[in-house]
Amino acid sequence: MDPEVRVRIQTSADVVVARQEGRSIAARLGFSNSNLTIIATAISEVTRNIVEYAKEGEVLITLVENGSRRGVRIVASDRGPGIPDIGVVMRDGYSTGQGLGIGLPGSRRLMDDFEIESTVGKGTTVTMTKWAQ
Amino acid sequence: MAVPILKQNQFLIASIQAALSDKDLIQLRDDLAELVGRHRARGVIVDVTALDVLDSFATRTLRAIAYMTKLRGADTVIVGIQPDVAFSMVQLGLTLENVATALDLEEGLSFLQRRLEDGRHGS
Hints:
By secondary structure, chain A is an alpha+beta fold. Chain A has helices at about 10-25, 35-55, 85-90, 105-110; strands spanning about 5-10, 55-65, 70-80, 115-120, 125-130.
């Protein structure tokens, strides 16, 4: 069975745990160190958004397969306030919080696949995948 | 995880040993701003060699450290950004504009030493 790790996200220390878990699971697919760093960084960005905007949530990290390709998938979800206009938050430099407004658009650049679903009042789920060479 | 801060002559050296949470980074920022005054330091080195991730929050906090210590009269230089970390920062779109960086501790110290000497000669 493929490894799967679920990390509950409530504090900035959980963000560190999530990115370390993500790196160690992704390492099983033989990603380069550059790509492991990229995966860990993207996890850091999306889980920080949970702490900052939703207070709590979780991240699920799994290995996935698509034909002959294998990859690592990160699903970060929360039941926070949701995002009224996803188009706006995916623009570089937009932030309502403490950040640089680079977390979501930056994570999309770091990963191969990136999807965000959000409903105001219900929460937000970010799903992103990096494929091994 | 508190970051040990050493004093060497007129310089402070913050030597990060392990992964830092956002809370730890804020603590480091505040400690450095305070210690610059207490030790009358003229320069600060933040050694990030041990960090395997520099994300948007960490970058923003390093920038804040450089600006805050500057306002307190000390130059800051960030040393030891690893190649993979630099690559990831560029992909993410992060920069350390107007913040001095150097390859390692040795280069960082000579940078600060030069800054101090330039200051003495009034240039």
